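Consortium newsletter contribution from the modelling node. Members have asked for a concrete example of what our holo predictions look like. Here is one, prepared for the flavin-adenine dinucleotide complex that several groups have been discussing at recent meetings.
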Amino acid sequence: MDWKNALPDIVTHPSSRLRFGEPLAKHTFFGIGGEAAAYFEVGTLAELAAVAHFHRQWEVPVAIIGRGSNMLVSDTGFNGIAVRLIGELAKLEIDENANAVSVGAGVSLPRLSKSMSQRGLSGVEFTLGIPGAVGGALIMNAGAWGSSFGDVVTNVTVMNDTGALTELSHAEAQFEYRHSGLSAYFCVTGATLSLEPGDVETVTAQMQAFYKQKIATQPFAEENAGCIFKNPPGDSAGRLIDECGLKGYRIGGAEVSTVHGNFILNVDNATAADVLNLVAHIQTQVRENTGLSLQTEVKRLGFDEAH
Ligand SMILES: Cc1cc2nc3c(=O)[nH]c(=O)nc-3n(C[C@H](O)[C@H](O)[C@H](O)COP(=O)(O)OP(=O)(O)OC[C@H]3O[C@@H](n4cnc5c(N)ncnc54)[C@H](O)[C@@H]3O)c2cc1C
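And here is the predicted structure:
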């Protein structure tokens, strides 16, 4: 029996949605990529555990996607199940007395940022301009303006591929610059954040100031996946790319932003191959001109499965 015939049996929650042959370009900020064999919006922990069991039983690859804002999907798509977390996995609960926030991995960062500012809780003001979800922010240790998401995290809950949940401490999550140890697990389901009490006006003003600064200095109108390269220690990838005269350089439908050199834009139906060719060209030019190797920040999906 084909796994695709068995998969509908694990859909139990009324708001969960399962589709086959779903174009992942619709679910990534790059707007690039082929189809996922299956796309499943999972609404409960029990359903997520069922996906973990299914993955082991049928040996089908599973990829958790957040908002797809740091992801490049291959032109041939993903021959597995792409999972998005909704419902009880996208809940936000606040313990006002402890200034602690329990946040599901499916909660979007702009929603988190706005909700916290409305309560005068400080620590996630920088996340309004980061269009990901909490799960992606934990995996990537997303950050801006000198703050990183891991800074406010006290615990992270993860599921392994037996469906069991484990609570990890801050140290066990192994947060580093745009990296964490969390991708070793089947899925990140949520986290507890510790925020500082402040007043609504100050927190809101800081959040808006960060946002304004971001949209003034980075491209927001065109499809992209945020910074394509990590900054080398003590330097800025954008500055190095600019120094090599690569702003505006184009391969196929992919172009280096003229606003910020560390962004690749999908300006005209770019393929994943266009993006990767442009990435390789930038890496070569920067290495030849500066001696530095740029490492990519964006995660790839669908480049190594059999199709
Ligand atoms: C316009 C724009 C601006 C941006 N600005 C910034 C910025 O200022 N700072 C910054 O750090 N980033 C920035 N980014 C990049 C991106 O928004 C962040 O990396 C964000 O944290 C990714 O979250 P996501 O939910 O979209 O993750 P996705 O792109 O969906 O996934 C990223 C990786 O995490 C994995 N993943 C996601 N959720 C889970 C989960 N629950 N469990 C297990 N694995 C999971 C995916 O499989 C993938 O490997 C920007 C992106 C854009 C498009």
